[in-house]
Design goal:
The chain is α+β, with helices and mostly antiparallel strands. It folds into 2 domains: 89 residues, 434 Repressor (Amino-terminal Domain) (Orthogonal Bundle); 170 residues, Beta-Lactamase (2-Layer Sandwich). The chain is 48% helix and 11% strand. Strands 2-1-5-4-3 form a 5-stranded antiparallel β-sheet. Helix 2 crosses helix 4. The longest helix has 18 residues. GO terms for molecular function: DNA binding. InterPro entries: Cro/C1-type_HTH, Lambda_DNA-bd_dom_sf, MLTR_LBD. Pfam families: HTH_31, MLTR_LBD.
Length: 286
């Protein structure tokens, strides 16, 4: 199995996540053998026949219309990210395309000098440039000081998901919220697989992590989908262990660079984290 979206597994997981009581379906609760909704209930709340819903879930629905997919997403209480993934998964189920181990690699993503100059101009906040499959392509000075393990890795391992799942005790020491970070990394990779299931790099990263990490494999099989573009991330300074609380924002690059995104990490003005970043930039800590 590769990284391609599998509509059957996804819809089964979403059905299992919906409590019948949420939808007023309380009859027969004592007789339920599995969590969540039965297929006939999922069909009913989606406003389609049981036969048609079953064919969609089994990947035999053909070119399912956006209206029907919207109804299924609404009936199963999907988020916007999950709805987008459902559309993508339905499309790939209809075409039968997905990961091909012998497919040629994609053209490498080239970091333009102007993009690196933009990163370098951010002198007071750490910033990383991400590419396909959570590869880290570039960084500014503070980003390199805050995440030296990424900078020191060979290019093929300069990947945030690999570092979170494969660095073991080091990852646990650096990231107090490691379990949630891992969940979000898998959710982002799952969303990317919906957009580009034939991506060779994505297939490589997902395949390696499924083979080497039981935790990644468990999260991947849970079908979690989410693209969180902003929030708070806690990380410890590599030198002193001081805990930093950073606000992150994701900025997607336009047009030809659309597969790349800049993530910046800032601190609340006047906070201990802001002072720690100032000292890191000044070379007081490293």
């Amino acid at each position: 199995m590769g990284a391609e979206p599998r509509i059957s597994e996804f819809l089964k997981a979403r059905r299992a996540a919906v409590e019948p009581a949420q939808l007023g379906l309380t009859g027969g609760a004592a007789r339920r053998r599995v969590r969540g909704l039965r297929r006939e209930e999922a069909a009913a709340v989606s406003g389609i026949s049981v036969d048609y819903y079953t064919r969609i879930e089994q990947g035999r629905g053909g070119n399912v219309s956006d209206d029907v997919l919207r109804a299924v997403a609404r009936g199963l209480r999907m988020t916007a990210d999950e709805h987008a993934y459902l559309r993508n998964a339905s499309h790939w189920a209809a075409t039968g395309r997905g990961c091909a181990p012998d497919a040629p690699p994609e053209p490498p993503l080239v970091v333009r000098p102007g993009v690196q100059a933009l990163l370098d101009s951010m002198e007071t906040v750490p910033a990383l440039l991400y590419g396909r499959a959570l590869d880290v392509l570039a960084w500014n000075r503070l980003g390199g000081l805050l995440w030296p393990e990424l900078v020191a890795s060979p290019p093929e391992d300069r990947n945030s998901a690999k570092r979170l799942f494969l660095d073991g005790a080091d990852a646990e020491l650096r990231h107090p919220d490691l379990a949630e970070l891992r969940r979000l990394e898998v959710a982002v990779l799952r969303a990317e697989s919906g957009r580009n299931p034939e991506g060779r790099r994505l297939c490589q990263v997902v395949g390696e992590l499924r083979e080497r990490s039981t935790e990644f494999r468990r999260l991947w099989e849970s079908q979690v989908v989410e693209e969180k573009t902003h929030g708070v991330k806690r990380v410890r300074l590599p030198s002193t262990g001081q805990l930093l609380e950073l606000r992150y924002e994701t900025l997607r690059l336009p047009e030809a660079d659309s597969e790349m995104r800049i993530v910046t990490y800032s601190a609340v003005p006047g906070s201990e984290t802001a002072e720690a970043l100032r000292e890191l930039a000044a070379g007081v800590t490293a």
